[in-house]
Amino acid sequence: MGPAASIDDQEPWMRALHADTGYLLYRLGLRSGQLFNTFLQESGLRLRHYALLRFLATSEGALQRELSSRLGYDPSAIVGLVDDLEKLGFAERRPSPDDRRSRTVVLTEDGRAFLRDTDEAGLRVTNDLLRPLGPAERDMLHSLLQRVAETELDS
């Protein structure tokens, strides 16, 4: 019997929380973010920086306002995040080819190298979080979460 079961036995109010899937997703999301942020802190970055770098890795560059809408971050937060990434040499602002007044944010080679280096750390975080599950259970959990996330993102 794991630690959660013993907590449930001793604290009746925990049974209700552990029966709530939304609460469990929230708690696991917090824990996952904490683990990954701990790793990222060595470089001075946070999960929000990482999400921005990952987005930039899938594009040839993006306008700051596009980053804001696609990632769901406040436009002023994007400015600060891009500033941080520029200071580290992971991203740079370039004049937009369509509008010289706008700036396109582009991932640099150092940014790509950083992402490659973080892949292994991300895998360690996931493995730590999902340690109680076997490979087939992990695959199933991932598929189910992906389906829910894609539905949510499409709405």
Task: Give an overview of the whole structure.
By secondary structure, the protein is mainly α. The chain is built from eight helices and three strands, in the order ααααβααββαα. It has helices at residues 3-10, 12-18, 21-40, 47-57, 64-71, 75-88, 109-129, 135-154, and strands at residues 62-63, 91-95, 103-107. A three-stranded antiparallel beta sheet has the order 1-3-2. α1 crosses α2 and α3 packs across α7 (109-129).
Give a brief description.
The protein has 155 residues and is mostly helical. Helices cover 70% and strands 8% of the residues.
List the helices and strands and how they pair.
Blueprint: H1 3-10, H2 12-18, H3 21-40, H4 47-57, E1 62-63, H5 64-71, H6 75-88, E2 91-95, E3 103-107, H7 109-129, H8 135-154
Helix pairs in contact: 1-2, 3-7, 4-6, 5-6
Identify the notable features of this structure and list them briefly.
single chain; 155 residues; mainly alpha; 3-stranded antiparallel sheet; elongated; disordered N terminus
Major sheet: size, sense and barrel closure? Answer: 3 strands, antiparallel
Distance between the termini: 39 Å
Strand order of the largest sheet: 1-3-2
Unreliable segments (pLDDT under 50, ≥5 consecutive)? 1-7
Class derived from helix and strand content = mainly alpha
Dominant shape: elongated
Q: How many DSSP E strands? A: 3
Cα-based radius of gyration, to the nearest Å: 19 Å
User: What's the mean pLDDT score?
Assistant: 85
Supply the number of helical segments.
8
The percentage of residues in β strands lies in 5-15%
Q: Strand-and-helix sequence, N→C?
A: HHHHEHHEEHH
State the share of residues found in helices, binned by percent.
over 70%
